[in-house]
Amino acid sequence: MTDFIEFGRTWMPFLLEGVGVTVGLWAVAMVLGFCLALVLVWARVYASKPLYLLATLYVEVFRGTPMLVQLFFIYLGLPEIGIVLDPFTAAAVAIGLNSAAYQAEYFRGAIQSLPSGQMIAARAMGMSRFQALRDIILPQAGRRVIPQWSNEAIVELKYTSIAYAIGLTELTSRAEQVGYQTFQFLEAFTLVAIIYLVLTGIVAQTLDFVEKRTRVPGLTNSGGKMS
Amino acid sequence: MSDTPILSVRNIRKTYGGIEVLKGVSFDLERGQSKIVIGPSGTGKSTLLRCINLLSPPDDGSVILDGVTVEQKGINQLRAQIGFVFQEFNLFTHLCVLDNVRLAQRNVLGRSRHEATRRAMEELERVGLADKLDAYPAELSGGQKQRASIARALAMDPKLILFDEPTSALDPELTGEVVQVMKELANAGMTMLVVSHEMGFAKAAADEVIFMEGGVIVEQGPPSTLFTQPEHARTSQFLQMLTHEHHET
Ligand SMILES: Nc1ncnc2c1ncn2[C@@H]1O[C@H](COP(=O)(O)OP(=O)(O)OP(=O)(O)O)[C@@H](O)[C@H]1O
Ligand SMILES: [Mg+2]
User: Fold this and answer.
1) How far, in Å, CA of B189 to CA of A4, rounded?
2) Does A7 map to a domain?
3) Which domain holds residue A131?
């Protein structure tokens, strides 16, 4: 045990330097995924048939193929048609595009779980569709989606480790480097697991806090229903 | 000017999936008048109300509100002048009572926060909910919800209010408080078009009763005559059925 603590003292700083890359990658991917998800959900819930079909195709493709294939497609495949991305950008784009598909589905579920009468009541008072979406649908769907969104954020945080496959020096790849330098793989990957646990714990707790703070009687989340 | 009707419905037709639900409905509503619409289920009563503010645009015919034709152009400003009270209340779940009553005032009428609050408080006081400003809809009883939704409609200063079975979703012991508020409104001169089988309201506050069946107005007249000496056999049959239902429950 004391050996492990000593090991941690020595190598933790080196590992922690990877936290910046991992969290940065995650944050960029989540923001990209969120923005794209808003477009997708609009297309899937409110837009015309062709846009609906396009968005549906997008969601199915990204949910139905392995993340690693998507990453290789972007990092190794796209250069063939002249699109060359550095590993960080390629990973952020791949994870972001993938996450958008899932986030969009969660948003859609939340929107469609809302009773339609409130939209009608808003329109009946002369509110525009935009106003009703902004002031009624979004705040309600937003509250309902937090638990699923939190889950998605945690999944994506862990997914950042696949960037290792295209040579990005993030957390997991640093742990591997430590392992090869010390031949103490068990300790190295235990340390990195602890770091991931702390990070996902922070994300889960933060969103849990947000959920509790914004909770409103009668607007319970639809959590658990989606798979 | 004040002798032109505030609402004039002219030969409204509406077809859903090949079935003509409204087959040419016409009537006028004078300023300060209350009319109640009765009729069997599926007759097009709700459709009629939704045609008036174009929630479901009619296929044919016209609606004239205080001399202005109700059409898609500028519809939001026209809808702001037509209150709508729903059977299921449709309060905004995530907003407290006060915000429910303020939202459209701010968005549609462009009122300041201060002005919207003032009007909201006046109307909430009027419906007896001054002590529930901070409550969320889920924390209210059915009767309180409906009174809040009436306050929400009133705060827009509408030229008339449409009610679609405002007491049908309520437990029987809660209908009284909503009917009471509606009677007070009618007596205070609000123009109202009410779809309801609430005889208490009809007898006490309605100036006229419209009996609809099969997408047309079968007959209309003051409650005193229509309820006691209906012209059409269908009307008296329907009224008999209503009284039976009331005795049973
Ligand atoms: N949006 C719609 N799409 C298709 N059919 C509709 C729609 N709205 C109403 N209808 C049909 O139109 C007919 C009249 O419906 P409406 O709701 O106006 O009747 P109602 O008189 O209000 O009945 P109730 O007393 O049950 O409320 C019904 O047959 C209904 O199925
Ligand atoms: Mg109806």
Assistant:
1) 83
2) yes
3) 2-214
Q: Which ranges constitute the DSSP H helices of A46-128? A: 49-64, 67-72, 87-112, 117-124
pLDDT, averaged per 10 consecutive residues of chain B (249 residues), comes to 84 96 97 96 96 96 95 94 97 97 98 98 97 97 97 98 96 93 95 93 92 96 92 93 71
Residue A222 within a domain: no
Kindly state whether residue A226 falls inside one of the protein's structural domains.
no
Domain harbouring A53, CATH code: 1.10.3720.10
CA of B151 to the centre of ligand 1 (A): 27
Is the pLDDT assigned to residue A227 strictly greater than 70? no
Is the ipTM above a cut-off of 0.90?
A: yes
Residue pLDDT, tens place only, A114-130 = 988 999 999 999 999 99
Q: Which chain B positions have a beta carbon within 8 Å of A135's beta carbon?
A: 103, 107
- A220 shares contact with chain B (CB less than 8 Å): no
Q: Does A35 touch chain B (CB under 8 A)?
A: no
pLDDT in tens, B67-122: 999 999 999 999 999 999 999 999 999 999 999 999 999 999 999 999 999 999 99
Residue of B69, B82, B84, B83 lying closest to B8 (CA atoms): B69
Q: How far is the CA of A64 from the centre of ligand 1 (A)?
A: 41
Write the DSSP string, B27-89: EEE-TT-EEEEE--TTSSHHHHHHHHTTSS--SEEEEEETTEE--STTHHHHHTTEEEE-TT-
pTM over 0.90, yes/no? no
Q: Is position A174 within any domain?
A: yes
Of B55, B94, B138, the CB nearest to A124: B55
Atom of ligand 1 nearest to the CA of B165: 27
**Out of B83, B86, B107, closest to residue A135 by CB:** B107
For residue B236, give Cα distances in angstroms to A174, B131, B229, B245: 87, 44, 8, 14
The domain total for chain A is 1
| Residue B213: HSE in the Cβ half-sphere, 13 Å Cα cutoff | 13
| Structural domains of chain B, ranges and CATH numbers in brackets | 7-33+55-65 (no CATH), 82-210 (3.40.50.300)
